[in-house]
Structure formats: C-alpha cells, structure tokens
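ugh ok so i messed up the first submission bc i forgot one of the chains. this is the corrected input, ALL of the components this time, i swear. 241 residues overall. if the numbers dont match what u have on ur side tell me asap before i send this to the collaborators (the ones from the other lab, u know who)
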Amino acid sequence: MARVALVTGGTRGIGAAISKAMKAAGYKVAASYAGNDAAAQKFKADTAIPVYKWDVASFDACSTGIKQVEADVGPVDVLVNNAGITKDGAFHKMTAEQWSAVINTNLGSLFNMTRPVIEGMRARKFGRIINISSINGQKGQFGQVNYSAAKAGDIGFTKALALENAKGGITVNAICPGYINTEMVQAVPKEVLEKSVIPQIPANRLGEPEEIARAVVFLAADDAGFITGATLSINGGQYQI
Ligand code: NDP
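and heres the new structure output, hopefully the right one now
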C-alpha cells in the first residue's frame, strides 16, 4: 500500500516541488495551502494531487483539515511542514502583528499540524516528520528577527520531538534551505539578488525547489529510519554547520 504524504504549502514554490517529487516516488500526496486559489487550482490540474485550503496558524483549522485529508486519502504517514511566510522589518520598527503572524505560521504550525497526526503515527509505529526551517534560523538575518526566531524554533522542535519518538519508528528531521528560486526570493529586487545575495553563495547561484524536494524524498523513505533529529543544510555552501 502506498504511503500517504501531506505537504503544507504544497501548491507553490518549494512545497509544490516536494508534492510532485513525493508523488513521483510513489506516495499518495495531499497538498495544503492558505488562500491562493488560482495557484492551487492550477497545481491540481497539472498534477492531479488533491489540494486543501486551511490556515496552518490555527490549531482547529489544522485538526479539521487533517481529518478531511485522512478521510479522503488515508492516515498521514509523512508530514512535511513546509508552509511559511516572511514579514520583514527592522526589529525596532516591527509590529506585534508582524511578530505573531510569522511565529504562528512558521513555528506554531509545527504544533498545530504535528499534534493531530502523531498519535496515529505512534499507534502504527511509523512516521516521518520533515520540517522546512531556513538558513536564517541557523545564522540569523537582518530584518528577520521574527522569521529567524521561528525557524530556529523549528530546529528545537525537531530535536526534542525526535527524542520522544525515536523508539517508535517515527523520525523527525529539519531541512534548512539557503536561497531558493521561488516567489519568496523573487520578491527580493533583482539588483539586490545579483549584487549582494548571489555573491554570498559559494555555488554562485540560487538553489532550485527540486533540490530541496530530493532531500525530502530521501528522508521520507522507509530505509531512512536511523536518521532522526538531524538538520540538513542545503545552501550552496553559504553557511556550513
Ligand atoms: P512560497 O511563498 O513560494 O509558498 C508558500 C506556500 O505556503 C504557499 O503554498 C502558501 O499558500 C503556503 N502558506 C503560507 N502561509 C500559510 C498558512 N498560514 N497556512 C497554510 N499555508 C500557508 O514559499 P517558498 O516555497 O519559498 O518557501 C517554502 C518554505 O521554505 C517556507 O517555510 C520558507 O520559510 C522556507 N524557506 C524558503 C527559502 C527560499 O529561499 N525560498 C529559504 C529558506 C527557507 P498560498 O499559495 O495559498 O499562499
């Protein structure tokens, strides 16, 4: 029986590449998204992967959404916590809304999504939880105190949850992408990308979403069961840890 994978933010950017790669690897995939219906419907038409709309910052919405996915597709074996946002600004000008939106979407979502699936994984003695953190959670970034705090929190979440579940066939790992060629990065002005971002990357280019997806497929596999609590940097050599 094919395993079931649920990818949050799985309709665009890195998440869309993950959804497609997991489907190609033989998983039954469900992709969630927040509100960009046009992108989600196009993704669904292109891939035949079912899409579900809910806000990962809401525990109740996640519980209800996951129940629907499990009814339609089956119990979740692989959860990819990929959905994320930025709301950048210097900390001395940051609003409480910028702080809480980024913390709730990038870190709160890991509780909201994982809590409803972990008991089933424990009962079935198999699970893969893969959290998409960021290089900026490892090293900090100007203008991103909120995002860096949330993404560093994702790593702590990963390590602690891995300890609690290592005996039960469940692995929990984090991936820290560097600059990846998605709309999130395309929002950075071209000149800034070319003059100051790319020169910081030893590989001298942005990463591609498929290069993150490849690592997710690797960590999700049945025979990756001894890899848990790990943080995998995929950043073209920009930050070595
Ligand atoms: P995109 O902005 O391209 O896509 C984000 C996806 O997340 C969309 O599907 C979006 O849904 C969904 N999403 C956003 N907020 C919510 C929410 N509240 N509830 C449900 N879904 C939500 O992002 P990327 O592909 O660039 O980034 C994916 C992940 O990788 C993020 O966690 C990001 O922080 C991380 N990352 C990205 C890097 C990069 O260089 N791109 C670098 C390091 C980490 P919708 O389409 O409806 O808006």
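quick check: Strands lie at 4-7, 28-33, 51-53, 78-81, 127-132, 170-177, 231-234. that seems consistent at least. The chain has one domain: 4-232.
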